[in-house]
Design goal:
- By secondary structure, the protein is mostly helical.
- 84% of the residues lie in helices and 0% in strands.
- The chain has helices at 2-11, 15-38, 45-69.
- Helix 2 (15-38) packs antiparallel against helix 3 (45-69).
Length: 70
């Protein structure tokens, strides 16, 4: 349920909005990696969620560029 809601939110975004969201998620991913290295990370599942969200955004960006060029 949560994934489909997140995906529907992402599909209505423009490419610029997707790029901004991707940048935000990558910054969060960096911060989580830093927390993990220093032993301060509490929610380890968030790392996996972030990786999957980043992959979703990249997939949507790619599909939108292919659709635009076709």
């Amino acid at each position: 349920m949560k994934i489909t809601k997140r995906l529907s939110d992402l599909t209505v975004m423009s490419t610029d909005q997707l790029q901004d969201e991707l940048l935000k998620l990558k910054k969060e991913q960096f911060n989580l990696r830093f927390q993990k290295a220093t032993g301060q990370l509490e929610n380890t599942a968030r790392v996996t969620e972030l990786r999957k969200d980043i992959a979703r955004i990249k997939t949507l960006q790619r599909s939108k560029t292919v659709a635009a060029s076709a």
